[in-house]
Recover the amino acids of this structure.
């Protein structure tokens, strides 16, 4: 497998250094003309939008238009612009990315496993199959900076390629529910102003100051989605989900959003929350409130596939019309096909693509 020795997001540099100097590795040398056949006619459609291949990179490692444009040039036909907010938001302290080594025989992390609370080893040994911490805190530039850059990212997409902006609301001290919903609406409005053809709403990261995910409250997600759709109109809205352990919770999410026509798709999954420890059993990531981190990569593949299968079954059983974006542990063409077979309309890879810039081309070569 063609893997870079250096990820296009350099895990040994700060987030700020990556934002200003990245991407790195093969992404930094992506040819301006791209490596894909620009004369080919797109073979698939996603929410009515022509796509060469419904495969790309999700929100997270694509920090700005330099990253997304390099992804397009290397054949990733879907690129999700890292989640933005209505105002600037600082990143968690460095380091943000550590290699994670589950102790389970198959290397998987599954919600409910005692290991998640007991502690999983995390260090700087980035070996395959690779899982990593995702401890950034959803940083964002100010809209005055990200809006023009997002416009540039959208314009850089070639034929059969799609830039997907990701956004979320932000909780502030003293903010009530109405204010939280209004912040989602304001951010969606800013995204729509860039010329976006659709957008993804992140409900899978912790609400600031709380150890809960927004997607754990399907009724509130429904309220927010309704308010956002009233603002953005016909623009398709995708909701990014974390793993939802109970079928009842997932059914409520679908009932409160897709069944009401408020949401046109779901992306699943983001990460799995895990307590991370060093070799001595101490806290692996420094700083208050960082005992746990979201983990992505190979260790969450089975959970991602499970969510896609369950969403696909709900879509079929209830005769609903929404797209499913499968995310989690995709590191090979076989993983891509496993997600498509599970019911995903599109598939994305973060950790796998970060260390393997040829992944999209490998899938297309089949």
């Amino acid at each position: 497998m063609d893997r870079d020795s250096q990820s296009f997001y350099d895990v040994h540099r700060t987030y700020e250094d990556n934002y200003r100097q990245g991407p790195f590795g093969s992404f930094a040398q992506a040819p301006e003309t791209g490596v894909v056949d620009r004369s080919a006619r797109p073979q698939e459609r996603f929410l009515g939008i022509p796509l060469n291949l419904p495969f790309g990179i999700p929100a997270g490692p694509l920090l700005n238009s330099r990253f997304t444009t390099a992804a397009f040039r290397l054949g990733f036909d879907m690129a999700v612009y890292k989640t933005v907010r209505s105002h600037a938001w600082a990143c968690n302290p460095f380091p943000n990315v550590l290699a994670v080594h589950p102790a389970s025989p198959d290397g998987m992390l599954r919600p409910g496993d005692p290991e998640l609370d007991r502690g999983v080893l995390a260090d700087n040994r980035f070996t395959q199959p690779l899982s990593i911490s995702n401890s950034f805190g959803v940083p964002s530039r100010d809209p005055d900076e990200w809006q023009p850059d997002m416009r540039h990212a959208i314009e850089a997409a070639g034929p059969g390629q799609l830039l997907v902006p990701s956004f979320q609301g932000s909780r502030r001290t003293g903010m009530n529910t109405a204010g939280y919903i209004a912040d989602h609406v304001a951010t969606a409005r800013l995204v729509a102003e860039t010329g976006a053809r659709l957008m993804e709403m992140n409900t899978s990261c912790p609400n600031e100051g709380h150890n809960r995910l927004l997607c754990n409250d399907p009724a509130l997600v429904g309220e927010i989605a309704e308010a956002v759709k009233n603002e953005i109109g016909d623009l398709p809205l995708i909701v990014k989900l974390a793993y939802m352990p109970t079928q009842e919770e997932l059914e409520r999410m679908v009932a409160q959003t897709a069944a009401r026509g408020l949401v046109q798709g779901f992306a699943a999954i983001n990460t799995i929350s895990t307590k991370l420890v060093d070799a001595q059993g101490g806290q692996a990531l420094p700083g208050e409130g960082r005992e746990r981190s979201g983990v992505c990569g190979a260790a969450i593949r089975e959970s991602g596939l499970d969510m896609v299968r369950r969403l696909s079954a709900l879509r079929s059983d209830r005769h609903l019309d929404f797209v499913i974006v499968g995310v989690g542990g995709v590191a090979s063409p076989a993983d891509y096909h496993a997600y498509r077979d599970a019911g995903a309309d599109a598939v994305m890879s973060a950790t796998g693509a970060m260390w393997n810039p040829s992944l999209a081309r490998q899938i297309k070569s089949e």
Remarks:
- The first strand starts at residue 44 and ends at 46.
- The mean pLDDT is 94.
